[in-house]
Amino acid sequence: MAAPEFDIVVIGGGSGGLVVAAGGSTLGAKVALVERHKLGGDCLWYGCVPSKSLIKSARIAHQMRHADRWALPPAEPRVDLARVMERVRGVIAEIEPFDSPERFRGLGVDVIFGEGRFVAPDAFAVGGRTLTARSFVIATGSRPAVPPIPGLADVPYLTNETVFDLREPVPSLIVVGGGPIGCELAQAFRRLGSEVALVDMAPGILPREDADLAAVVREAMVADGVRFHFDAAIARVAGAAGALALTLRASDGAERTLAGSHLLLAAGRRINTEGLGLNAAGVAIDQGRIVVDDRLRTTNPRIYVVGDVAGGAQFTHLAEHHAGIVLRHAIFKLWWAKPSSILPWCTYTDPELARVGLSEADAKARGIDHRVYRFPFKEIDRAQAESETAGFAKILTDPKGRLLGAAIVGPHAGELIAEYGLALAKGMAAKDISGVIHTYPTLASISRRVADQRMKEGLTPTAKAWIRRIFRLRGS
Ligand SMILES: Cc1cc2nc3c(=O)[nH]c(=O)nc-3n(C[C@H](O)[C@H](O)[C@H](O)COP(=O)(O)OP(=O)(O)OC[C@H]3O[C@@H](n4cnc5c(N)ncnc54)[C@H](O)[C@@H]3O)c2cc1C
Known about the structure:
The chain is built from 15 helices and 23 strands. By secondary structure, it is of the alpha/beta class. The chain is globular, with a radius of gyration of 25 Å.
């Protein structure tokens, strides 16, 4: 039998696929990368990069409005959304060369544009070629889910794939979905001057997070002027561009209608598996998900999945981590390598909400014996100096003090959570963080201060009495 043409064929050139392709090629593998649209994926074009760029402009607008917090004259920004979106496009353009076909071809990757399909368990056909490989990696990502709302087919709506193309003003935006994407964009548009209503069938935002943490974000969004409509079933949508009407139906059947110039759907994601010929490849699908083991292997041992299409959490850093695991398998034959269970993430609202490890709700639901410690930003000197005191840090430990999880809601939470990511990955206890010198005055000192709460808990009146007696102290 002829030897396969490639060591690795990657299908999908986004966050996960690009890392497999670049890493594989750098390590000496012969790699082909198949992409149906443009390299960079959701993260670069429709996700992390544009959303965080938009959020930055929105935050500056907010700070201008509230400049009196820093003893400066407040100013109402005259927002030109087209200019803001051009800046977003400019940021993408700065990053795009790192994900360009030229760069990957320069690394020795055979970059093929087109939409192909598996024609056999070891062959993928695209653009008149049939690619054979020792390993294949499906990295086709996900797309916005479109909920079955009556009337939706007849009205214009936005998703994350189109919202950053907007150049016209957005007087009033209805956002469907109170997850991270919906909250980030709702707050950003509100701060950029739109009236914003956020609708969700759940009773609150960010359902994966503990209620006490999510409440801090919700309060900030309410203060910004975002109007929430929870427990809301959407009965129908009607209207035309610039004049949309979304009708909500309460559990008692009562209806009310929200008016908006624009409608943004952020109500979940669907993985991209259609048309890949997974049947021919012997890759099983169950209830719309590719069947994957804990090492990212499909039911065809030579085909792996990475990133969103793997069916778990959907983050760029997870897609990149998956890519590293698959390279260990495909190149070094480290068949036992599997993804880390320690996954940090962050919702980039203001304040940010970041978490790693177990939440309090998870711990309760799973009956895990745990302790909870909190520390507020308002007792952190740097937060006071910056007038950014909303939020708190929270850790969960087991009864002996070993860390089970950490969450931070507050300024720069996404940066601050990294320390707890490391601590959890290394199986550390609260005392390990307590014993580390943290630079003063930094927001990061909240990580130590919250860990100190665990130490202080041990100082019961009896323990203090013993310390006094043993060390002959004179205090009361
Ligand atoms: C608005 C928004 C904000 C986000 N913000 C963050 C954030 O702040 N931090 C974070 O970590 N994550 C964020 N994410 C999630 C992040 O973008 C994704 O988790 C990440 O892009 C997934 O990488 P991937 O490689 O799985 O897929 P992608 O990066 O989407 O790449 C998939 C690629 O496959 C291609 N493709 C699809 N089907 C085929 C096919 N049949 N043949 C060939 N090519 C195909 C696509 O064109 C695409 O290029 C955000 C997502 C959204 C929507």
